[in-house]
């Protein structure tokens, strides 16, 4: 079988090329190629354009032609830039309590919330965690997601954080999707740590970070900046140590109260995620920086709170990514496209803005420059839908499922 493949023809190809990283987008900015084809060489896009022209140009070459015999739309596969899919247990009781009127913080103070998942994740074996990650990643592939950020943060001790990061590393070898690990050891201060918040952060950054760096278990460090977690008065020791060791920074910011986005800007974070509580002050601050704002509509749906002010972020000139925040507590749905479609409805986002937020802008939130667009010499990660109109994808709010998913030049799903 040839290493070079020509795939098509596609009714429409959305390349997501030549679009800015920051600011609002209009749908007429989308590059749409009709009767399109993709020429792959291994895991890379070699050429793209009119299918008939490509076929004629390469007809004397040794290539495999994969015919699409139905009307189809192709676009870059999706990037979920914020998830917590390494966990054990369920928080269904938390969900029921929230729906009955108990607040997120009240549930946490009563022993539920993040600590409940920490307890269950600590008890789980590494093999059980691996199995759970692979199962969830498979579900995400079926929805067209090829790159998945995965956080630790339910271990909250040196040994248990290492166990989680080792499980993510092992799971990455068992799924065709690419898992991008992030250390979230500053999720909350564990209840069994005898000391202050700052003492915990000093302990974890001095004892855990060097091991992660030496073993290359991840290159990203995250922290939850919030009342129940950490703040500007104690986070310095954690992020300063992370930067000393060369880690990239990302921040859980402005979910229930402000302050996190300012920390993200201060430390030159790659992204500030959540932002449901952000005011115009925070929006302008982020827009004038290089920090990517990541909306997490799954948390809004799970908690019943306000959406990230996505429209205002874009209109202020900010970069907006959209991620699922799949986790067992506040965002149990895990369906990125459904969440992004709902966010679009409430925040009045264009199709171009939504698709940018789950493709090249989401890739940028992970510092990945080789994906998120269909372009020569980029990764051959793409998703195919049985439809003649790309607007159908968001119109069905996640119910229109891909017919094919390709990752790194290989078809990993075919329906």
Compose a concise summary of this entry.
The protein is an alpha/beta fold and about 425 residues long. The chain is about 35% helix and about 20% strand.
Question: Can you give keywords for this protein?
Answer:
415 residues, eight-stranded mixed sheet, alpha/beta, TIM Barrel, Urease, subunit C, domain 1, 22% strand, eight-stranded parallel sheet, 17 helices, single chain
Number of strands: 16
Largest sheet data: 8 strands, mixed
Query: In DSSP terms, counting alpha (H) and pi (I) runs of 4 or more, how many helices?
Result: 17
At the first level of CATH, the class of the largest domain is Alpha Beta
Radius of gyration: 21 Å
- Domain count: the total is 2
Named CATH topology of the largest domain = TIM Barrel
CATH architecture of the largest domain: Alpha-Beta Barrel
For the termini, the CA-CA separation is 22 Å
Rounded mean pLDDT is 96
Unreliable residue runs: none
Residue share in helices? Answer: 25-40%
C-alpha geometry? globular
Task: Give structural notes.
The protein is an alpha/beta fold. The protein has two domains: 4-77 and 371-414, Urease, subunit C, domain 1 (Roll), CATH 2.30.40; 79-364, TIM Barrel, CATH 3.20.20.140. It is built from 17 helices and 16 strands. The strands form two sheets. Strands 1, 2, 3, 4, 5, 14, 15 and 16 form an eight-stranded mixed beta sheet that branches. It has an eight-stranded parallel beta sheet with strand order 6-7-8-9-10-11-12-13. Helix 5 (126-141) packs across helix 6 (158-172) and helix 7 (197-207) runs parallel beside helix 9. It is globular. The two termini are 22 Å apart.
